[in-house]
Design brief:
With 108 residues, the chain is α+β, with helices and mostly antiparallel strands. It has a single domain, classed as Hypothetical Protein Aq_1857, Chain: A (Sandwich), CATH 2.60.300. It contains two helices and nine strands, in the order E-H-E-E-E-E-H-E-E-E-E. It has helices spanning 6-18, 67-73, and strands spanning 3-4, 26-33, 39-46, 54-58, 61-65, 77-83, 86-92, 98-99, 105-107. The strands form two sheets. The chain has a six-stranded mixed sheet with strand order 4-5-2-3-9-8. A three-stranded mixed sheet has the order 1-6-7. Strand 4 (54-58) and strand 5 form a beta hairpin. 23% of the residues are buried.
Length: 108
């Protein structure tokens, strides 16, 4: 399962409104090769659910994850920070053995 903090939920709802998206624009989370630690998170809106997707819902937010990425993301929490140490979505991933300083890439 992938969970969403209250701050992430609020920011997702705000982004939907700012970008003129509808509520059936779900969040797609995936993992791709790259970044300084080897793997990178990819986050965006998507209204299409593929047959092989896993669909999670937390706090009213639907999250789509492809099968390959799911192995890296199980147990992850999507958070949002707007503090001085960085602004944006953050992934709290128990599967990551190390992360880079910016928090956008990780290794297992």
């Amino acid at each position: 399962m992938i969970s969403v903090t209250e701050k992430a939920k609020e920011r997702i709802i705000a982004l939907r409104q700012e970008e003129g998206r509808t509520e059936n624009q779900n969040i797609r989370v995936s993992v791709k090769g790259g970044g300084c630690s080897g793997l990178m998170y990819d986050l965006g809106f998507d209204e299409h659910v593929n047959p092989a997707d896993q669909v999670f819902e937390d706090k009213g937010i639907k999250i789509l994850v492809d099968k390959k990425s799911l192995l890296y993301l199980l147990g992850t929490t999507l958070d949002f920070s707007d503090g001085l140490n960085g602004k944006g979505f953050q992934f709290v991933n128990p599967n990551a053995s190390r992360t880079c300083g910016c928090g956008e890439s990780f290794a297992v």
